[in-house]
Amino acid sequence: MGFVYAGTLLLLSSFLLGWTSSNVPLFVSIFLVIVGVGIHVALIKSSDIND
Q: Residues 24-37: what's their mean pLDDT?
């Protein structure tokens, strides 16, 4: 869940600091959130298989 929180904080801070004219922080934050969700789902699925 760390990637999701990092992406959310980066997205929030980019809007608060006015970095909306640059796409780099937006793409990085979306990438972090997607990777975090993917890792979370993979961990949940692997723990379901082992139970």
A: 93
Rounded Cα gap, residues 50 and 25, in angstroms: 37
Q: Which residues contact 1 (CB under 8 A, 6 or more apart)?
A: 36, 40
3-state secondary structure the chain: CHHHHHHHHHHHHHHHCCHHHCCHHHHHHHHHHHHHHHHHHHHHHHHHHHC
| CA–CA distance, 41 with 19 (Å, rounded to integer) | 30
Global pTM value: 0.80
